[in-house]
Each structure stands twice: as C-alpha cells, then as structure tokens.
Write a structure and sequence with these properties.
Keywords: Membrane, Transmembrane, Transmembrane helix. Residues 793-829 are annotated as: Disordered. The chain crosses the membrane at residues 426-446, 478-498, 504-525. The chain has 829 residues and is α/β, with parallel strands linked by helices. The chain has four domains: 9-183 and 719-810, no CATH class; 197-220 and 567-693, no CATH class; 229-401 and 542-562, no CATH class; 410-517, no CATH class. 50% of the residues lie in helices and 10% in strands. The protein contains 30 helices and 16 strands. Strands 1, 2, 3, 7, 10, 11, 12, 13, 14 and 15 form a ten-stranded mixed sheet that branches. Strands 4-5 form a two-stranded antiparallel ribbon. Strands 6-16 form a two-stranded parallel ribbon. The protein starts with 8 loop residues before the first strand and ends in a 19-residue tail after the last helix.
C-alpha cells in the first residue's frame, strides 16, 4: 500500500488586536481557506491556530478562543499577547483598593490541553539570560512597548509549523501554560527589493528573450527524417513490383531496351551484307512507338496518383485505397503514432527548459519545427513530373523518325577508282581475280548506296561531296560510283602503256583499295545508325522512365510514408508553441505588475527593519545563484502549467487554444509568490522537478553558514521580550526554562558540516537542541521562560478589568481544568 499523501501544514493566523467584530460571525472554515489562499495551496492541514491579542482583549475574546479551539479541524491553539499585564486589584483590611501590575490574567479557555499563551510584555526587550546575577541590559530601537512591528519576527517564527508544535508542547508542560519568549533570529534571505528586482529580470528574460538559434531548440522526433527510417523500410518495400505503377515502369524500360538491342544489331556490317536492314528498321520503329505509349501511360497514371493523394493533411482511407490500387502499401512505422510523437516532443520541451532556454525561444523553435515538418504535399511534385517527363517528349517519341539518307563519300569514290586502276594494269591470268574483286566492290557500294527499302531522299549528312539535293539521289550516287570505276580503268590503261608497274605492286594496291571501300562503307553505316539513334531519342525515354521511378520513390518516402506522422507532429508542435506563448504572456504581464508594485514598495518606510536588529539579523544578497535558481523555478512552473494539458494537446491539438493555460499560469505564479513570502527562496516550490539539486540557503543568498552555527552555540544571545520590571514575573530558574534552535532543513547538510569538530570557526559552547524546519527563510533560537507561581491568575471574562481569581485555589496544571477537555486533542475531536 502507498502511504497517504501528506498535506502542507499551515498555521492559521487570527489577529484580534484591533477587535473581534469581523471574526465573531466568521466560520473557521473560511479563515482556513483564506490562509490556504495566502499560502497558495488548494489543500492543507489547518489544525494549528495562532491568535494575536492584547491583555485587555484576551479576556473579552474568550468566546472566540473557545469556539476556535473546539472546532473539529483544530488540534492546538497558541495565543500571542502583546502589551503590559492588566494586573490585579486587591483590597486591604481597611477596604482600600490598590493595583498590583505584576499579575497576568488569562481566561479559563486558555488553560486546556494544547491551548497555551505567550506573553510579550515589551517588544523592545531586555538583555537577560538565565542565571544572570547582574542587572539586565536595556535596548532601544525606537519602538513603543506594544508596537506591533516589534513582534513581526516572532509571528513569522511561530508560523513555522515545527516551531509552533514545539512551542505548544513545551508551554503545555509549564504549570500555568503561559511563557515569556526570548528570540534571536537570523533571516537567510535577500532584501525584498533585491528579490523583486531579480524576479522581474528573470521573468522578462524568460518571457521575452528571443533566440537567433531558435530553430535548433527543437529537432523533433528523429523518425520523421526519411534518412532515419528503419533499414527494412524503403520505397522498394512499399511499392509492389507487380503493381500498376511499377509494372508500367518495367514495360517502358523493357521496350526501350529491346529497341536498343535491335539498334545494335542494325549497326553491325553483317546486316548490310544480309540485306535485312529494312525489317530491323521497321521493328525498331514499332518498339519505339510501344515504348512511347507505355511511358505516356505510366506518366499519366503517376500524375493521377499525385493529384488524388496529396498528403498535406495526412492520408485518409480513400487515399490509401487509391495507393493500394496502384500497388503502393503504406505500413505503420514504429515511433510515428500520435502518442509516441507527443512523448518525443514533450521530452524535447522538458530538455530545453532544463537548459534554461527562454519560453519565447522555445515557442519559436516549436513553430519552426512545425513549419519544417508540415508536409508540402505530393502536388508539389507535379512540376517535377513535368520537368523529368514533359508531355512533348512522349509526343516526339510517337512522331516519325526516318532513317538517315546515304551521301556520296570521297573516300569510297577514290578507293573504287584506285581498285579499277590497279585492275587495268594487272596482266592475265590475274585479270580474273581483279574482276571478282571489282564486282565485290561494286556490290557493296550499290547495297550501301541504295539504303533500306522505302528510303526517300533526305538531307545530306556531313562528309558528303555535294551540297545540292541531287547529290542524295540514287542515280547520282550510281553515276559517281561507275564513273570513278571507269576513270580508274582509263588511268590504269594509260599507266600500263607508259610502263608496267611491278608485279607485286598491283595486287597490293588492289587489296588496299578494296579494304578502303569496305571500311569506308562500314563506318558510314554505323554513323547512319548512330545518327538515327539520336533521332529515335531512346536514351531520353529511358532517362525519363528512371526519373519517374525516382519521383515515385521520393513521393512514397517523403510524402506518403510519413504524411500522417508529419501532420501529427506539426499540429502538436504548434499547439505546444501556442500554450508556451500563453505562459510567456502571463509571466510578462505579471512582471510588469510586479515592477509597478516594486516602485511602490521602494517608497515604503522600512526603517523599522533596522530597528529590529537586536532580535533579527538579515543576511544575504542577490547574485548569480539566486538568479539561476529563480529561473529554474519559473521554467519548472511552466512545465507544471502544461502538466495536466499534455494529453489534451497530443490527443486534440485543435483544443489547445481553449485550454485555461493563462488562468493556471496565474494561479501557479500567485502560489509561487506566496511560497517566497512564507518560506523564502531556500525550500524548493512544490512543482520543482529536481529539488535535490537546489543550492543550500547559504549558497543561494550568499550567506555564511557559520553565522547560524555560532547562533545556536551561543545560547545567551536571545532578547527577552519583556521589560526589566516584568522580569520579576518570570520563573528564572534555569531548570524551568526551555530553549531550542531551528534551522531550515535545506541547510542541514552544510550546517552539520560546519558544526563538525574539525570545521573552521565554530562558536564556543555546546549547540542548542535543534529543529529542522521546512521553512527556508529563518534560523534562530527561541527561549521560553514560564511565569512564576502567582504571576498568572484566571481572569473573569465578564468582570471589570483587573479582577481575577486567587491563583492558590484556582491555578491548575493542564488537563485538570474541569471546564476544558481531557486527553490529547486530535483533529477529529
């Protein structure tokens, strides 16, 4: 079983010094709730009550005391009375009346278990210690004996629950349940004006500071980056090979490859010799047309998918069905659910606040992340589609692509003439061999010159002899061929008459001429095929198909696969930015009000604080540790503001604008201000995320912890809050006096280290019994001196002031009063 949650403890203050009219008809529950509001808590233990009163009012207000103490929510009551005792009127044997001022009158209602009284006879106090034999020392702080400003330190001390409980316990054990307090207080806190100024500076920075590197504040979940996808999740794993889109791609690619293979076959010289070039050309043209149709169909299908499936607001069921129809499956990726994305954003926000980033910078970073993450939609890829595969490309592939015409080549004509010249010089029987060679040259030349079947005259290719269109006509080319042969034969005959060439030179010349003709024809054919390849634009079709595949893969990974996750992350980041902006706006407005109030505070006369120096010592100054701690507190406050709203923001980002973020921020700021007022800066606020890392009070306010150690070692230091004449009313026996010290729990570690035997600078003597308190403002020493026997009488509530019962017959120890309750009081009564 888990232990029940402990509620904060509050000492409820009831001030009756100026009359009880406002409290007589007010239920105690309202007093408790008022105290809770002042403390900034919604639930608390209000069983401790501190009543401030005067000696005269103490008797008049007995009914209020009784009503408060008898309430079922109250377990103890401590009445702090300020002013000179009323005294007692005596009658002599002769009937004369005289006044004895050394008698303290209390009502019977304050003589019950756990209902005790502290009497401050003179707020100026005297220097007196138990066992002192010499005269008491006077102090002068410029205050009247009953000036309420003089008891402010004591009131603050008694409102510490641990000190209150110990005071009630000790005074309850005294015979009359009345004691005179002596106090020495060390306030480990910076002055109020410095604290307010530091708060204003921190709030202004936190709520208004911009950051030029705001884009780096929030990087977002890494899963939203396509480069960080799981290894098994790729575009290939999402697009089925037998789906419409991928099948259309492969069909186009296969047709282009088949046409390219036919082109390679057409470019071979054997194709020229076989005479089937015309059939290959027709086959290539048909494959090109089919490839163009396949590419166009693939492009149109992809364009339809891009138009239908946008993804800027995620993918709905209809869009997923459309993708499924074309063979695209979008799997659910781990880490991309709304809850997982929300958790990742929440973690990054918490990390950013722990690094002391301003709320404005954090909100700007979230908005920048939302802008970067928001899907641009697949429609943005339409322009890219038109770029990688423009419609005119498909149209050009469907258009005509005539095979290039043959032009007369100077090398071929010269080689034919050389062959004929060599043949004319060849003697019989080599004439037969020469004729065969010449016929081969003529056959190859004729086949090449005529070109594929159905070829029509075209434009001249580079390397031709003539620029006139007649140079491309077959009759012109035949005339050039046979003319070159005839001219070569004539030249060979003339050469034979002039002088026959060597026998071996003629066949060698013939072989060179034949090889030149064949090589020239083969190279020219390949050039014709290469020129036709560029006209066919098969490479452009293949490149377009590959780029369409890349475009599809990019859309799958960059748009559709992460569309839902990106929309979810973008919406939630914007909602968080909106909430943080509201927090920053509220803090900024509060800092402005605080600045206005601080100007009024600085004009208030606080000279009485210096006059309290015999009792109170203020130490501490604002510095870097205090500023950083207040900044951490406010960033923790911002996180606490969002704590109940995380689930709403992540479940329904649109509802974030309707959340009461500003109201909750203001409530927490008010509670935090109350915390600083009542507990100081040392204890962490309830919403602190890492309270164990908070600096101890000495470090926080720059105070020396040895001052506290010396204070508790010097038990002779407290100032007794009474006059010299009133000392005669006290039981000054050392054994009857109770003394204890109190130190904030946050200082315990450093205090014990400074109080150790080996520590430097310890004060003399043995340390007083010490309480560890939750409050971080005060450390001090409280001495409780009981009133002497006979100095306390039970006053008549309805009688005139100065009347009282004889203490000898009416004084009882706590628990023996018949008008009171027996046993130990509990909240249940």
């Amino acid at each position: 079983m888990t232990a029940p949650k402990e509620h904060p403890r509050i000492v409820v203050l009831i001030d009756l010094r100026n009359g009880a009219e406002g409290f007589a008809a007010l239920p105690f529950e309202e007093l408790g709730r008022t105290a809770m509001r002042e403390a900034g808590v919604s639930s608390a233990d209000v069983s401790r009550v501190l009543v401030l009163d005067t000696p005269e009012g103490l008797l008049r207000h007995h009914a209020i005391h009784r009503a408060v103490y008898s309430h079922r929510s109250v377990s103890s009551l401590l009445c702090l009375v300020v002013g000179s005792a009323l005294g007692l009127v005596h009658r002599t044997e002769t009937g004369e009346r005289y006044h004895d001022p050394h008698v303290f009158l209390r009502p019977v209602s304050l003589h019950s278990p756990n209902a005790v009284t502290l009497w401050v006879g003179d707020v100026r106090g005297v220097r007196w210690d138990p066992g002192q034999t010499g005269p008491a020392g006077l102090t002068d702080n410029g205050l009247r004996p009953d000036d309420t400003r003089g008891i402010e330190p004591l009131i603050e001390t008694l409102r510490i629950p641990e000190v209150y409980d110990e005071t009630v316990r000790e005074v309850s054990s005294m015979p009359s349940a009345v004691a005179s307090p002596a106090l020495r207080l060390l306030v480990q806190e910076v002055p109020d004006d410095q604290l307010i100024r530091t708060q204003i500076d921190v709030m202004k920075w936190l709520s208004g500071q911009r950051d030029e590197h705001a884009a780096d504040v929030v990087a977002g979940p890494v899963v939203l980056d396509p480069d960080n996808l799981p290894e098994h999740v790729t575009a290939a794993s999402c697009v089925a090979e037998d789906g419409q889109l991928r099948a259309g791609y492969w069909k186009c690619v296969d047709l282009v490859h088949e046409a390219a293979d036919r082109l390679e076959e057409l470019a071979a010289f054997s194709t020229v010799l076989r005479g089937d070039a015309s059939a290959l050309v027709a086959d290539i043209v048909d494959h090109r047309r089919q490839a163009a149709l396949a590419l166009g169909a693939h492009r149109e299908l992809l364009a339809h998918v891009l138009d239908t499936v946008d993804g800027r607001v995620g993918l709905d069921a209809a869009q997923r069905d459309t993708l499924g129809d074309v063979g695209i499956r979008i799997p659910a990726l781990p880490g991309t659910g709304s809850e997982e994305i929300g958790a990742a954003l929440r973690e990054q926000v918490l990390t950013a606040t722990s690094r002391r980033r301003s709320l404005r910078a954090l909100a700007d970073g979230l908005r920048g992340f939302a802008d970067r993450t928001q899907p641009t939609g697949s429609l943005s890829s339409r322009r890219r589609l038109d770029s990688v595969c423009p419609p005119r490309l498909v149209e050009s592939l469907l258009g005509p692509a005539p095979f290039p015409r043959v032009t007369a080549n100077a090398s071929a004509v010269a080689a034919a003439a050389a062959a004929a010249s060599a043949l004319a010089q060849w003697a019989v029987p080599g004439v037969i061999t020469g004729v065969v060679a010449l016929l081969f040259v003529l056959a190859v030349g004729l086949r090449t010159l005529m070109g594929p079947a159905g070829e029509r005259p075209g434009r001249e290719r580079p390397g031709g002899l003539a620029g006139h269109p007649l140079a491309d006509h077959p009759a012109t080319r035949l005339s050039l061929l046979f003319g070159s042969v005839g001219a070569g034969s004539a030249l060979g005959a003339v050469a034979a008459d002039l002088g026959r060439a060597p026998t071996l030179l003629v066949p060698l010349a013939l072989a060179v001429a034949v090889a030149t003709v064949v090589g020239t024809v083969a190279v020219g054919w390949r050039r014709r095929v290469a020129a036709w390849r560029s006209v066919l634009a098969l490479d452009a079709a293949s490149t377009a198909a590959e780029r369409l595949r890349e475009l599809l893969d990019d859309c799958v990974v960059g748009h559709w696969l992460l569309a839902d996750a990106r929309v979810a992350a973008s919406d939630r980041a914007r909602a968080l930015a909106t909430a943080l902006t509201e927090v920053a706006d509220t803090l900024q407005a509060f800092s402005q009000r605080l600045e206005l109030s601080s100007e009024a505070v600085t004009g208030v006369d606080d000279s009485h604080l210096e006059l309290l120096s015999p009792v109170v010592h203020f130490v501490g100054q604002a510095g870097t540790p205090l500023r950083e701690t207040l900044l951490d507190d406010l960033e923790d406050l911002a996180v606490e503001v969002l704590s109940p709203f995380w689930s709403v923001i992540f479940a329904d980002p649109a509802a974030a604008t309707r959340l009461p973020v500003a109201e909750r921020t203001q409530a927490l700021v008010d509670a935090y201000q109350a915390h600083l007022v009542h507990a100081g800066t040392a204890p962490p606020p309830p919403f602190a995320r890492e309270p164990e890392r908070r600096p101890d009070p000495a470090t926080l306010v720059g105070a020396d912890i040895r001052h506290v150690v010396d204070l508790l070692r010097d038990s002779q230091g407290p100032l007794q809050l009474c006059s010299v004449d009133q000392l005669r009313m006290l039981d000054r026996q050392p054994s009857a006096i109770r003394t204890f010290g109190f130190v904030p729990h946050a200082m315990q570690k450093s205090f014990l280290a400074a109080d150790s035997p080996g520590a430097d600078g310890p004060g003399p003597g043995e340390r007083t019994r010490t309480l560890w308190t939750a409050s971080g403002r005060c450390a001090g020493l409280l001495r409780l001196v009981p009133l002497a026997l006979g100095a306390v009488r039970v006053g008549e509530p309805d009688g005139p002031a100065g009347n009282g019962r004889d203490p000898g017959s009416h004084e009882r120890r706590p628990g023996s009063d018949q008008g009171g309750r027996r046993g130990t009081r509990t909240p249940e009564g």
